[in-house]
Write a structure and sequence with these properties.
The chain is mainly α. Helix content is 42%, strand content 9%. It has a 3-stranded antiparallel beta sheet, with helices on one face. The relative contact order is 0.16.
Amino acid sequence: MLQQQRTNSRGEKYVIGPTGAPLTLSDLPPPETQRWVIRRKAEVVAAVRGGLLSLDEACDRYKLTNDEFLSWQQSIDRHGLAGLRTTRLQQYR
């Protein structure tokens, strides 16, 4: 599901993030992120879907494989944010 890209009063492009708040490039997790909690994964997926980052840019920025990112996206589509829990991964497969 693609999102419409919008511009805020400062001219920054944004999309609506997983919490319902506007999400800009500066709001994304830092590139050196090591601990991927549900919210951070969902923010990266929302940014790619909204066009803030391309799939390749996201994978390069966060040192992800295409398959890893696509698995996050598929988990959200199938099971919502709960599908991103690593402790629940086996239950959802």
